[in-house]
Amino acid sequence: MSKWLVDKNGKAHYFICGDRIINKFGENSAWIREGKFYSLDGAQKGWFENDILMDQEGQKLAENIEKDLQYPAIKPRPQKVSSFCGTLNRQENRGWSIYEIRQYIISGPQRD
Fold it and tell me: Rounded to an integer, what distance in angstroms lies between the CA atom of residue 97 and that of residue 56?
């Protein structure tokens, strides 16, 4: 058993390794820092608090839960960005996001 970021349909797409969000192929996909999550280039995309990954509107993209899956081999760590930027206004979590986690992490908010 290992912890995975699981979407509203129960599918595991990502996991957390230190300060990184890694996809199921072992590729670095995003950063986590001080309760926020950022794109690989350092732009804030949402929050990670209490094992919940949230979008820019404070809604759940995924829950960090135990799954009967093994982690893949992790690819080398990318060079960390020199600065993290952007400040999103924190809103209360109001349930599941309208966004699909894989698309959101890759390119930002896109509707399903």
Answer: 9
